[in-house]
Amino acid sequence: MTTSPVQAGSASPTGRPRVVIVGTGFGGLFAAQALKKAPVDVTVIGKTSHHLFQPLLYQVATGILSEGEIAPATREILKRHENTRVVLGEVTDIDLTNRTVTSTVLGRTSVHPYDELIVAAGAGQSYFGNDQFAEFAPGMKSIDDALELRGRIFGAFELAELATDQSEIDRLMTFVVVGAGPTGVEMAGQIAELAHRTLKHDFRNIDPTTARIILLDAAPLVLPSFGERLGGKARRQLNEMGVEVQLGAMVTNLDENGIEVKDSDGTSRRINAATKIWAAGVQASPLGKQLAEQSGAAVDRAGRVSVLPDLTLPGHPEVHVVGDMINLDKLPGVAQVAIQGGRYSADAIKRRIAGKPAAAPFKYFDKGSMATISRFSAVADIGKFRFGGFIAWVLWLVVHLMYIVGFKSRVTTVFHWAISFLGRGRSQRVATQQQVYGRLALEHLGPEFEQSKTGGLADDAPAEDLTGRRSA
Ligand SMILES: Cc1cc2nc3c(=O)[nH]c(=O)nc-3n(C[C@H](O)[C@H](O)[C@H](O)COP(=O)(O)OP(=O)(O)OC[C@H]3O[C@@H](n4cnc5c(N)ncnc54)[C@H](O)[C@@H]3O)c2cc1C
Q1: Burial of 391: CB neighbours in 10 Å, binned 0-12, 13-18, 19+
Q2: 245 shares a domain with 314
Q3: How high is the pLDDT of residue 16?
Q4: Options 69, 186, 193, 318, the catalytic residue
Q5: Which pTM does this prediction carry?
Q6: CA of 335 to the centre of ligand 1 (A)
Q7: Pocket flag, ligand 1, residue 104 (CB < 6 Å)
Q8: In degrees to the nearest 10, what's the CA dihedral of 40, 72, 131, 152?
Q9: How far apart are CA 63 and CA 417, in angstroms?
Q10: pLDDT per residue as tens digits for the range 167-226
């Protein structure tokens, strides 16, 4: 492992205040964009080299969109920001006393001093203490997850085509989505459309339209955040599409072949299913706990940090935390909270540098929420209006298109949507063994494998100081 010998508090080469941003999701990216013309040196650190548009991950998983369309390179997005450099690395340590952030990638460690810090590391999947479920039921948080699921979903139909035993065919053609929030509903709806429309004529031994798609949740409602009326509408529509909605059903165990469920009346049962998808629960980045421990801020069960009304940490006005990592006024874990928080924090930094008084506390402007159920149908909750159907779906298309980053991606997305929603096709049906087995293989290989991929760097190899260098 190599370590950059950057001294805490060392001055920026330009003499300007150093702003470090952790995360290239909605909070991090929009904060960086808001600092474009500010007299600061910005370092954006992300553990992936792309900005991920998570709301459309399910479309990558079901073959509608390619990963590139929802995950443009951060470096490309920020290439015209002359005050900004982009660094690939996972932040492992934040030292609030010495004002440094430590990141590492493939055994190369760098230390980044800051004057102002914005932490926007988001949230990961939560299996509610059953992390072993992840092996059999991938979540939906990253491009890796979406591609693995794509491989598992399309692969299940391929294996069913080969199987001769009916119970095996049934197992392969049963898809269980756990979690009836927006992600679960969208995923279940798209698997149903895939089975019933896209793949209808593609097989000879199986009939994909007989695939069983089950959406289950321990809660008594579909889309609880949209209220009973819209949730009920979504449930009826899912039923019409052939999705079995099972509510009050708590997952108690999972294995390669199926899922065990306890119903609200206390009875237990098993569903044989090859493909399980976990769309229930989130856990904030572990960096939240680090920040809380050092600042005395509280952290809730989901790992979110209680921030002050200006999104900073107690006793640390220079540390801003935004997006899915924060616990403030019951704000939801949605993109707009992160975007607005990122912009607010960037503005607070600019004000401080300009010697202006601090802005009013952060106020979230709720622009509403939407979820698609199938092509031509969505539900929307915007201000006083809660409605569903075609208009909601068109609105959903327009809003999502607006927030996809980059002209190229928007054009190709529209093209692929036309193929899938007006026609029956799916342009992205490639599924490789690497996609399906890569995650598990890496887990089995263990951390030593990562060390072996450092290109031969030894523990005492010359240190590389990244902090004085500029790149976009
Ligand atoms: C499947 C899915 C569907 C969704 N659909 C919707 C929707 O329809 N509408 C909506 O408003 N919201 C939706 N959301 C929620 C929305 O995507 C999040 O609220 C939003 O992304 C939060 O932004 P963020 O910046 O806090 O975190 P993220 O966007 O998750 O970004 C976190 C960033 O931090 C990086 N990171 C994490 N840990 C580290 C580390 N240690 N070091 C370096 N980098 C790190 C990550 O790689 C990532 O770049 C959805 C989420 C998911 C998963």
Answers
A1: exposed
A2: no
A3: 95
A4: 186
A5: 0.92
A6: 7
A7: no
A8: 180
A9: 11
A10: 999 999 999 999 999 999 999 999 999 999 999 999 999 999 999 999 999 999 999 989
